[in-house]
Amino acid sequence: MERRPDFLLVGAPKAGTTALHAALAQHPDVFTTTPKEPKYWLCDDAPPPAWRGPGDKHSQQEWVWRRDDYERLFEAAAPHQVRGESTPFYLWSRSAHRRIAEELPGVRLVAVVRDPIDRAYSNWMHLWCDGLEPEGDFERTIGLQEQRVRDGWAPFWRYVELGRYGAQLAHLYRHVDRDRVLLLRYRDLVDDPTGAVDRTCRFLGIREGQVGSVPQDNSRSFVAPGWRPALLGPAVRTGARLGQFGPPRLWRRASAPLTAALRGPRVVHRPRLDPAVRERLLPQFAEDVDLLCRVTGQDFSDWLSTADRGSFRERSAAG
Fold first, then answer.
1. What is the DSSP secondary structure assignment for residue 55, as one 8-state letter?
2. CA-CA distances (angstroms) from residue 74 to 30, 45, 77, 118?
3. pLDDT tens for residues 192-240?
4. Strand (E) positions, the chain?
5. Could you report the per-residue pLDDT of 55-109, keeping only the tens digit for each?
6. Is the Cβ–Cβ distance between 208 and 198 less than 8 Å?
7. Which of 14-18, 68-72, 269-273 is predicted with the least confidence, judged by mean pLDDT?
8. Mean pLDDT of 240-258
9. Where are the alpha helices (DSSP H) in 50-192?
10. Is the pTM of this model over 0.85?
């Protein structure tokens, strides 16, 4: 591949990769692709699987699976710029690990990880507030994951599986040298955003001090259960199914008033996750958190608490 990426932001979904991508896109020495998430290394030079969850077929139209199309994404990069793209599902995908290792032997990978329960809650909240998630109870959706996998729903619906970073990194390190992988924590982006960006710049071999701020992540205003999701949610999901038959930009324009009505006129912070719910979910992640500590040599035991840390917006404001 002649026009290849120099770096990939590989994950995890809802762990701050959008904010980091937006910050790096401001750097004069960085070229980032449009679309931000081409998903090429998930596809194996073939069309993506026919996922069947709400909105999956619509979103798959934007996957870049042809090699020539992927290479063209990097054509406009200046000679002095490092080229990169951000597909947070690469960390989750074992086949992507193998393909990246085989075809991009010099690429650098940046992974951002977040408390897996907070990440899962944010993932559910994202889809619920977009009107795509039909289940209004977060804990109940955890029990639906295996059935949804069997039914062919796309990876973004795998709330638990996407947060098992220990197993993901253990597999990645079997294919990619550790010195080519930078592991950041979500809290790094919240507590010291410019420091996290400068650390990434050092890792990529480009100038530090060129980015003054990190944009907020792509959080949604909370949609409370009630008449709005009951009435408008099914309309959004129906529209998303019909959207597969037209250009993605057409459905985005058509759906904007509907999703705005779904969210209502006021920006509402998501409610904190009940500590009792966290306590019940912790056993699903505890073994993998222990593996992550062993694989990375870092301490992630704070993730085993029952405290919800709040959204990016709340945490940034508190800092």
1. T
2. 11, 17, 6, 34
3. 999 999 999 999 999 999 997 787 766 677 777 777 878 777 777 777 7
4. 7-11, 30-32, 82-86, 108-113, 181-185
5. 888 788 889 999 999 999 999 999 999 999 999 999 999 999 999 999 999 999 9
6. yes
7. 269-273
8. 72
9. 56-60, 67-72, 94-103, 116-129, 138-150, 165-175, 186-191
10. yes
Candidates 45, 47, 22, 19; CA nearest to 34 is 22
The total of other beta-carbon atoms located within 10 Å of residue 170's CB is: 16
Taking 70 as the threshold, does the pLDDT of residue 311 lie above it? no
Q: How many residues does the chain have?
A: 319
| Alpha carbon distances (Å) from 129 to 66, 234, 260 | 32, 12, 10
Q: How many other C-beta atoms are found inside a 10 Å radius of the C-beta of residue 179?
A: 8
What does the block give as tokens for 172?
A: 């990645």
Tokens describing residue 269:
């912070």
The one-letter code for the residue type at 87 is T
Residue 208 half-sphere exposure, CB side, CA atoms within 13 Å?
10
Question: What is the spatial order of strands in the sheet that 7-11 belongs to?
Answer: 30-32, 82-86, 7-11, 108-113, 181-185
Amino acid found at 31:
F
The mean pLDDT of 155-183, rounded to a whole number, is 97
Q: Which of 117, 93, 101, 124 is nearest to 288 (CA)?
A: 117
What letter represents residue 23's amino acid? A
Residue 62: Cβ within 10 Å count? 14
Per-residue CA distances from 86 to 11, 47, 265, 284 (Å): 8, 19, 31, 28
Integer Cα distance of 31 and 16 in angstroms: 19
Structure tokens belonging to residue 88: 């947070």
